[in-house]
Amino acid sequence: MYGIPRKIGRYEIKNELGRGNMGAVYLARDPYIDREIAIKISNHRNTGSEENPDRFSREFFNEAKTVSRLIHPNIIAVYDANVHQGNCYIAIEYVDGSDMKAFCRGDALLPTEQVLEYMFGVCRGLDYAHNMGIIHRDIKPANIMLTSEGVVKIGDFGIACVQEETTSKTKVVGTPHYMSAEQVEQKPMDGRSDVFALGCVLYELLTGEKAFPGETPAQIVGRILDGETPSLSQRRPDLPGALDAIIVKALAKHPDDRYQTCLDLAYDLRVVQQQISDMKPEDSLTNILDYICNIPFFRDFSRDQVQKLLGASTALRVKKGDVIIEEGDTDDALYVILSGTVSISKQQERIVRIERGECFGEMAYLSHRPRTATVTAATDCILLKISSAVLDRFPDSMQLLFIKSCAMTLANRLAYTNEIVFTLLDKIQD
User: Fold this and answer.
1) Which residue would you say has higher pLDDT here, 286 or 179?
2) Highest-pLDDT range among 29-43, 148-162, 167-181
3) Is the pLDDT of residue 47 over 60?
4) Residues 64-100: pLDDT tens digits?
5) How far apart are CA 181 and CA 186, in angstroms?
6) What pTM was estimated for this model as a whole?
7) CA–CA separation, 175 vs 137, rounded Å?
């Protein structure tokens, strides 16, 4: 396309926001609802797609298809997708602001508390996407927008994928400086690859330097696979040591050693923010409540019920490899995983791994019998421990919710076990 069109579809073009080889972005007006939007339109003549326009269209519309499922205040919304004069376009939310790349220079760094607040918003948006089964795969400062009201919004889901699609080897996609080891090695990925990228962005926003610098993609990849990032305390000795530990964990080479979800990262960021700011205790409680209310186990609990539960339970931090429950123990507490992954084994044979949002210990809680399995932390974990004596004092309505959540857990595990049994039987019959 050449020049600025007057209209694209029903949208009235106001001016050009940006242009590249792949196409252009325009500020436009939707006359039907009198709203400003942004139009991203391709120029397939410059993309090498003329030989296979159908394939290009499918790839271009991937962003519209993917993001249309995501309705979250920290994700740029997609409104429409169509074709105009042979070129694909999508209509998206217009963000009146700038991307975070502007704050990644040494002379333009934001106050630390502000960085943590923005990163908290990005974590929440990404965690929402991950819970919808979508991995971004290209998190970087240029894809995080900051509105004039100070709200962060994640954009450019163009190479995002549904999580099931990452279980097999795929082509390398993303921006080298922010790609995890499994991403550059074309290994299966999940939301923890986005966690790695978030660690890179956080490091850059705090130091003004890349976590994995390099002049060529080969140099960058070499550092990601085998190199070490200069510690945050070297670059910024004025920052709390806890931030150094957060960066190290987020940038771990192996996914199991990282934060297991973006909300796990957000939780630790909020703790540091409380330490360096004048955040009131009630604000802290609100943040913890927000975090726990997003845990699948508590989906049917009201906010007041979760708050009551917090006052009667114990939060535990457990290191990778620690034994939490041993087979034969008589303790009948119920545990809910707020962060991380645990491994359940019986007679030293691993049965299953369970993750954030699930519970364990439900059999002893329901039957008051000795533990029938051993539970070990497969990663660093945060657990909520609730004793059966405390649960017995809760109102009947809350006890029923616990029993319902435990029953759902047992049903899901039984279904998983049945799948394994049927798969084995099919192999035997073959």
Assistant:
1) 179
2) 29-43
3) no
4) 777 788 889 999 988 888 888 888 888 999 998 889 9
5) 9
6) 0.75
7) 9
Distant-in-sequence, close-in-space partners of 25: CB < 8 Å, separation ≥ 6: 16, 17, 18, 19, 38, 39, 40, 41
d(CA 228, CA 271): 26
Please state, as a whole number, how many other Cβ atoms lie within 10 Å of the Cβ of residue 25.
Answer: 17
* Ordered alpha helix ranges (H), 212-322: 217-226, 232-235, 241-250, 262-276, 281-293, 303-310
**SS3 label, residue 179:** coil
CB-side neighbour CA atoms (13 Å) of 338:
23
Active site residue 244: no
Quick check: 383 and 318 in contact, CB under 8 A?
yes
Spatial strand order of the sheet with 359-360 comes to: 314-318, 381-386, 334-339, 359-360
Alpha helices in 301-370 (DSSP H): 303-310, 362-367
User: What is the C-alpha to C-alpha distance for residues 13 and 161, in angstroms, rounded to an integer?
Assistant: 30
138, 156, 194, 332: which one is catalytic? Answer: 138
Tell me if 40 sits within 8 A of 92, measured CB to CB.
yes
Is there a contact between 30 and 56 (Cβ–Cβ < 8 Å)? no
Q: What is the pLDDT of residue 167?
A: 46
Asked whether 43 and 121 are in contact (CB, 8 A), the reply is: no
Burial zone of 404 (CB within 10 Å; 0-12 exposed, 13-18 middle, 19+ buried): exposed
Percent of the chain, pLDDT > 90?
35
Residue 127 has which token pair?
A: 């965690």
Q: State the distance between the two ends of the chain, measured CA to CA, in whole angstroms.
A: 58
Pair of tokens at residue 201: 């962005």
